[in-house]
Amino acid sequence: MFDLTEPDYALEVCDELTALWDASPDRPVILNLPATVEVATPNVYADRSSTCTETSPAGTR
Predict the structure, then answer these.
(1) What pairs with residue 27 in β-bridges?
(2) Paired residues of 24 in beta bridges
């Protein structure tokens, strides 16, 4: 959650949003805060996660 954000600030933002949305036990709110979009767009992380490697000799089938 917000990897490079100060925890106190992240909590303040979450608390203000849940108050704005009038959250309560009868009206729960789930905050989904993906860390990957904090610093870069998702495609940057996707590009890092997979590598394609050729394992067969060239020209063989």
Answers:
(1) 24
(2) 27
H-assigned helices in the chain:
7-20, 36-39, 42-49
Q: Are 31 and 14 in contact (CB under 8 A)?
A: yes
> What are the tens digits of pLDDT across the range 40-53?
666 766 666 555 55
Q: Classify 27 as helix, strand or coil.
A: strand
Do 1 and 7 meet the contact criterion of CB atoms below 8 Å apart?
Answer: no
How far apart CA 22 and CA 35 sit, in angstroms, is 25
pLDDT (0 to 100) of residue 28 = 92
- pLDDT, tens digit, for every residue of 20-32? 999 999 999 998 7
pLDDT for the residue numbered 8: 87
